[in-house]
Amino acid sequence: MTRTDLWPAIEPLLARVERPARYIDREWGALHDGEAAYRACLIYPDTYEIGQANQALAILYGVLNAIPGVAAERAYLPWMDMSAAMRETGVPLFSLESCGAVRDFDLVGITIPYELTYSNILETLDLAGVPLRAVDRSESDPLVVGGGPSVFNPEPVAAFFDAILIGEGEEAVGEIVSAHRAAKAASASRAETLHALAAVPGVYVPSLYETVRDAKGAYAGTQPLPDTAARPVVEKRVVADFDAAPVAIAGIVPFMDVVHDRYGLEVLRGCTRGCRICQAGMVYRHVRERTPDHILRDVVAGLACTGYDEVSLTSLSTTDHSQLEEVLRRLQRRLEGTGVSVSLPSLRVDAFGVEMARLVSAGGKKSGLTFAPEAGTQRMRDVINKNVTEEDLLGSVQRAFESGWRRVKLYFMIGLPTETDEDIQGIGELVHKVFRTAREATPPAQRGGLKVAVSVSTFVPKAQTPFQWEPQISFDEIGRRQQVLRDSMPHKGVDLHWHDAEISFLEGVMARGGREVADVVEAAWRGGAVFDAWTEQFRLQRWLGAFAETGVDAESIANRERLQSEPLPWAHISAGVAPGYLWRERERAFAGKTTPDCSFAGCTGCDVCDDLEVKIVLAGDSRG
Amino acid sequence: MANGEFRLRVRYGKVGRLRWLSHLEVLHALERTVRRAGLPYAVTHGFSPHMKVAFGPALPVGTAGENEYYDIWLTRYTKAEELLSLLASAMPQDLAPTAAGYVGDSEPSLGAALTIARYQVEVTGKGSLTEQVHAAMKSLVDSGTLTVTHKGKHKVFDLARSLPEETRVTQSADGSRIELAVRIGPEGSLRPEALVRAALQSAQLDATVVRVTRTDTLIEQQEGLWARPL
Question: Would you give the DSSP letter of residue A384?
């Protein structure tokens, strides 16, 4: 194995790029094992300050480095000034810890975080000097493995990966490395190695599958090639004993400002509230809570190891933790007088959420509160199964402003299935009521500082959700509905922010596209698309050019309703939730019927418990 | 000491790869180190309470520093050597503290006291031979002034005042090394790389500045002697 130290070539470039701290390593907590026989490079395909905050990579970094003989290092996508300098001087993508060329590692793990990072994945591979497509890789190229949140329809990027892990990585990552090491020890060929990987539960090896077409040439499914270990359906990996799963206590402490610059501890995983719009709620099932004792232990240890002055209790919905109140009270006692603050990333739109916010901000600064009612009318909220009422929201706003908060942020969506103009106008009316409630709860002298921020995005139907068959509203229709909303929105005191319609459209294509979309991603990247998730870098034109060049019909992917009988491009990937359940939920949505949270009401029949042998695990017996 | 607080002065280096950190990044790294080390740090009062710490003159991104200083106020007395070892064990090596000692609360701040900085500037390339660089430096210094343009603003430095001692040029492995002292302060500090670049340019030497290190930050005493603050 070649081991080069690229630092002498990298350092001279630093004087001419922004934020050299992105490229220098040497952070507290970074692990250096120059002796390991097997080396993995974990890559987040965005800049250091975005990727360094990722908890999943931090956990996998710890897990892999704990395996004898294995070293894991990190790499991020250099910003454009640096990648230009690297290309100019012939410096390939490098790992931070040893400044080794990424292409010299045994395994290259790339996070697949979000649809708009797909172009960055290609940029990462190209900078590394690794062939973009798995089929073009030789025996000397590293094994390129993907994983992360956006794998539940992996097809648009499947061609670029040798293997993709579906689901949670804590346990699976060791099995993947173990299979790869065994294959190397046996001097297995690349093809043999891929077959061995396909036998690891949760691992999808795209090259072992083929697309099947019917007599008319229409897509008829994706199936394993004959005589392989590949499964017809790859089921996600899930950690059953989440309370005992490893957490990143001795995390890496960055020098530069990064997003979420604090100690983060995941206190529960999964969510069973069953919002029909939410992919995360479907694919991270089931709810598994960590016990207060373990949370306390890990927060205290994590703060001592890192020196952070803030801890964030993370999850899809932290205020859903059944023992949150106890956790916060105990944390409050432990951290008293240290100046360390506790933050909660998301709040429930009810009294409990506000009470918990009050508990964490006791005596300190009150930053804004964020609520996500998602829709403006009760009918619409019932369709998406949001299970939140206007009274819940207004009551929470009133309590929050009476307790001293002066800012609230509200998240809404337009373009939801069955939405009418009245539903959109309902958002404006609800915002108006929130503003009035906030104003009345604020002493007259302080009303000047009152602020209601409203953020509106366009609904993007996602794979593995009850709305996976739904058409996304068209580009023109997004514009029309945005105008309806603008006209109904109170102007005074409300700060309105839109999610770009062009970005939503592209997200929609990537979210439900099939294998053919890989050609589009590659064409767009060749046309200059990179850092598409950075709004100022995004150019729709590049993508429209790529659709035209490849002949892929973007509208038929994003804006077309699918039939129940139609094979879906992600049907060979399973999050454990039965397609029948998703269809029933879709029908209940159109009937305006809500479905309760199965953590407390009865089983709603999603099949995750039976299929994946994972049970709902609550630390207490009721929600706060 | 005032308010029952103890003012600990720490000498440290910003070397190796960490010379690429900004001053703010060094400050944040230090705060996290202090918490990891478990030091009994004092907190400022006011709207946004934070750790009570004060630094000497900032180092630019890319410039290393071998003898830099900060003061940190503590609420409890502990032997300085013990604190030094606690800090050293919690700090990345390239920012390691090298000395620590208590100073009186009435002492002037590091920012006000440190008015001299010694630098070492390394240049390589064609025309980086000692004699050539020496002649280029001398010719520029003899011209009397240097106008530096930074972010569209012009600033004129009186070189006799800005360079309080003679500059030395010696041969290095792949070029030459310039050692110089610069007066620093609120009225503006001459950046050594700006000076060296101007000298190389006016002598039309095809050499470049590859590394700048601030080797010392010093207090100019009344008798004209220079002393370390610790």
Answer: T
The pair phi, psi for residue A312, each rounded to 5°, is: -115, 130
Q: Pick from B17, B93, B94, B191 the residue to mutate for testing the A interface (most A CBs within 10 Å).
A: B17
User: Is the CB of residue A109 less than 8 Å from the CB of residue A43?
Assistant: yes
Say how far apart CA A42 and CA A75 lie, in whole Å. 6
What values do phi and psi take at A473, rounded to 5? -65, 150
Residue A186 corresponds to which amino acid?
A
Please state, as a whole number, how many other Cβ atoms lie within 10 Å of the Cβ of residue A411: 17
Q: Least CB-CB distance to B92: which of A27, A257, A304?
A: A27
Give yes or no for a contact between A151 and A137, defined as CB atoms under 8 angstroms apart.
Answer: no
8 Å CB contact of B33 and A339? no
> Over 50: is that where the pLDDT of B1 sits?
no
Name the nearest CA neighbour of A473 among A463, A460, A485: A460
State which residue of chain A sits closest to B21, comparing Cα positions. A21
Give tens-digit pLDDT for A175-186: 999 999 999 999
Helix ranges restricted to H, A15-54: 48-51
Length of chain A: 624
Amino acid sitting at position A415: G
**Identity of residue B160:** A
Alpha carbon distance A25, B93 (integer Å): 12
Dig out the tokens for A568 from the structure. Answer: 């879906």
Which residues have CB under 8 Å from B167's CB, separation 6+?
Answer: B137, B141, B178, B179, B180
- Do A279 and A328 contact (CB within 8 A), yes or no? no
How far is Cα A261 from Cα A5, in angstroms, rounded to an integer?
29
Which two three-digit tokens encode residue A92? Answer: 């390939």
What is the full DSSP assignment across B159-218? Answer: HHHH--S--EEEEETTEEEEEEEEE-STT----HHHHHHHHHHHTT--EEEEEEEEEEEE
* β-strand pairing of B6-14 with B63-74: antiparallel
Inform me whether the pLDDT recorded for A408 exceeds 50.
yes
CA-nearest residue of chain A to B212? Answer: A15
DSSP state letters, A239-284: -S-GGGS---SS--B-SS--TT-SEEEE-EE---S--TT-HHHHHT
pLDDT band at B45 (very low <50, low <70, confident <90, very high): confident
DSSP-assigned letter for residue A223: E
CB neighbours of residue A385 within 10 Å: 23
Where residue A542 falls (left for φ over 0; alpha for ψ -120 to 50; beta otherwise) is: alpha
pLDDT of residue A365: 65
Closest residue by Cα to residue B64 from B227, B215, B228, B220: B215
Q: Residue A341: phi, psi to the nearest 5?
A: -110, 160
CA distance B40 to chain A (A): 10
Tokens of B40: 């009994």
Contact call for A20 and B20, based on CB within 8 A: yes
**How far apart (Å, rounded) are the C-alpha atoms in residues A144 and A134?**
8
CA distance B9 to chain A (A): 21
Rounded to two decimals, the ipTM of the complex is 0.92
Q: CA-CA distance, A75 to A61, in Å (whole number)?
A: 12
**Which among A429, A449, A455, A439 has a CA at the least distance from the CA of A400?**
A439
Give me the phi and psi of A106, to 5 degrees please.
Answer: -75, -45
B31 shares contact with chain A (CB less than 8 Å): yes
pLDDT averaged over every residue in chain A: 94
Average pLDDT rounded to a whole number, residues A581-602: 94
